[in-house]
Design brief:
The protein is α+β, with helices and mostly antiparallel strands and about 500 residues long. Among the domains are: about 180 residues, FAD/NAD(P)-binding domain, CATH 3.50.50; about 110 residues, no CATH class. The protein has 16 helices and 21 strands. The strands form 7 sheets. Strands 6-5-16-17-18-15-19 form a 7-stranded mixed β-sheet. A 4-stranded mixed β-sheet has the order 11-10-9-13, with no helix packed on it. Strand 5 and strand 6 form a beta hairpin. Helix 3 crosses helix 6, helix 4 crosses helix 5 and helix 11 crosses helix 15. It binds flavin-adenine dinucleotide. Flavin-adenine dinucleotide binds next to helix 1, strand 15 and helix 16. The site of flavin-adenine dinucleotide has 35 residues, from helix 1, strand 15 and helix 16. GO terms for molecular function: polyamine oxidase activity. Belongs to the flavin monoamine oxidase family.
């Protein structure tokens, strides 16, 4: 998304002047990166980016609208919105929980989150007392979202004295059940932010994160077609697939006389070395690989940049968080549908904690890492779960598909994403980890060489630019963040060459 939005912008802005000779090099065999629409059992599904997070002001929504991607005859994931199903909450052991039990804990969680995100909290006496107590107990410093939420639950128990046992829930005590419902909400938020442990998610950064207002929707025609639309303006041959960049050679001191004479590419200061031994020289390169690929790239056994990146950039790359979330699609067997006349609900799952002896060994590990299972639209036989972090990685590595040979439900087909083990991504999206901040995002976005105004030619300046979701201070982790970062870097180059920037 970032690379193609930059290329699209540069091409459209300068086509008539032929200012740039553009080339997009992509290591994979398709364009789109973490946007990857696919099909499963006749339905259109998304293996990566799924939602337009808020349509008002979203550039992705605008492209989808202009390219007529908002309607389709083929059924698509979440075509009926997110809250279309009957929600039920079931605790391990098969106990359906009464909504009146679940609601107060869910409300508590939502209010704590709203407070963290700097949004207005539903006004009631209990919430404000709880928040006051949390705030005084946590104090400033390196506060994490996880520790604040933990304080919130403790404070809740300090105020709410109802200890009555809950009927019809087997061995579950009221407190353990409340804790497990809260943990379910935490798992849902872990999937949203791609964080393995909410204790590593920075508290302060959450309120700086911006979301566009308005509805959240999926794209009927498929997210990948937004990418196709951006790519469609580029002349044939501009995008080169299967070109894995191994090294990026740049010249911090500007283009030396030797290199001007020596490399046969005029005075181009940057050289890309590909895995097949070939190379390509350029005046400017916009690097849009994921933060996961950059994290590997700065390792000493990899050294993607020659010479290595300056230390502020290395520190920013090391400190920022990059998480893993994966999706698994399961097709219910036709037998299941014939013998069950009810619709598969939006199933919220409440599990015993990791150290509990009451854990049912038949529940697969990956499922415990998710918070819910639900059909991709009402009455669909395709059931979806998102799972996060360590569980996702373990599933990525062992390659097994133990996706639910439970006694009651059989699945005919399984499809899952593998963002963690794919060397072109090494994870899903970035977050601000405890110990990092928005300043690290800005440091990552800084072009190289730094302080280059003293370098002789404009071609020696802005040799290596950085775009991609992880470089957008307020919209990181999203497709629109990636898009906007690509536009930002294209504009930087256009300005550099005194072109009009729109
Ligand atoms: C499961 C999942 C769900 C998501 N859900 C949403 C959502 O609902 N809404 C939302 O807005 N966002 C979502 N996202 C995030 C969104 O997909 C990304 O933020 C965005 O697509 C990133 O775009 P990018 O251009 O920054 O990076 P990428 O898409 O990663 O593009 C980088 C490109 O670089 C290529 N590359 C990597 N290494 C090399 C190399 N060495 N040489 C050459 N090429 C290389 C890659 O193949 C890739 O095509 C989700 C992501 C995932 C994984």
């Amino acid at each position: 998304m970032a690379g193609l939005s930059a290329a699209n912008k540069l091409f459209k802005s300068t086509n008539s002047k032929q200012l740039f000779e553009l080339c997009v090099v992509e290591g994979g065999t398709r364009i789109g990166g973490r946007i990857n629409s696919s099909e499963f059992c006749g339905d259109r599904i998304e293996l990566g980016a799924t939602w337009i997070h808020g349509i008002q002001g979203s550039p992705v929504y605008k492209i989808a609208q202009q390219s007529a991607l908002l309607h389709s005859h083929q059924p698509w994931e979440r075509m009926d919105g997110f809250f279309s199903h009957k929600h039920i909450t079931v605790a391990e052991g098969g106990y359906e929980l009464n909504p009146s039990f679940v609601r107060p804990i869910s409300t508590l969680f939502k209010n704590l989150l709203k407070f963290i995100q700097g949004e207005p909290v539903d006004e009631d006496g209990l919430s404000s007392e709880i928040l006051k107590r949390c705030w005084s107990n946590c104090g400033p410093g390196n506060l994490s979202v996880g520790s604040f939420l933990k304080e919130g639950l403790e404070a809740y128990w300090g105020f709410v004295k109802d200890q009555k046992p809950v009927d019809g829930v087997g061995n579950w005590s009221r407190k353990s059940l409340e804790e497990a419902v809260f943990a379910m909400r935490e798992r849902a938020y872990r999937a949203y932010s791609a964080v393995d442990d909410l204790g590593t998610l920075d508290y302060n950064a959450e309120s700086a994160y911006e979301i566009f207002p308005g509805e959240e929707i999926t794209i009927a025609g498929g997210y990948s077609r937004v990418i196709d639309s951006l790519a469609s303006v580029l002349p044939v041959g501009t995008i080169q697939l299967g070109r894995i960049v191994e090294k990026i050679e740049w010249q911090p001191g500007g283009c030396s006389q030797e290199s001007r004479k020596g490399n046969g590419d005029g005075s181009m200061p940057v050289k890309l070395h590909f895995s097949d031994g070939s190379s390509l020289s350029a005046d400017h390169v916009i690097v849009t690989v994921s933060l996961g690929v950059l994290k590997r790239g700065i390792r000493q056994d990899c050294n993607m940049f020659i010479p290595p990146l300056p230390s502020p950039k290395i520190q920013a790359i090391s400190r920022l968080g990059y998480g893993l979330v994966d999706k698994v699609f399961l097709q219910l067997s036709s037998h299941y549908q014939e013998t069950n006349d009810f619709e598969f609900p939006f199933l919220q799952m409440v599990f015993h904690p990791p150290d509990s002896e009451l854990r049912d060994p038949r529940i697969p590990r990956w499922m415990r890492g998710g918070s819910s299972l639900y059909p991709i639209y009402c009455n669909s036989r395709v059931i979806l779960s998102w799972f996060t972090g360590q569980e996702a990685l373990e599933k990525s590595q062992d390659g097994s598909e133990d996706s639910g040979e439970g006694k009651q439900v059989k699945f005919d087909n399984v499809l899952r994403s593998r963002w963690g083990s794919d060397p072109l991504f090494l994870g899903s999206y970035s977050y601000v980890a405890v110990g990092s901040s928005g300043d690290d995002i800005d440091a990552l976005a800084e072009p190289l060489p730094q302080n280059s105004s003293n370098l002789d030619s404009p071609r020696s300046q802005l040799q290596v630019l950085f775009a991609g979701e992880a470089t957008h201070r307020t919209h990181y982790s999203t497709t629109h963040g990636a898009y906007l970062s690509g536009i930002r870097e294209a504009n930087r180059l256009l300005k550099h060459y005194n072109c009009d920037v729109v």
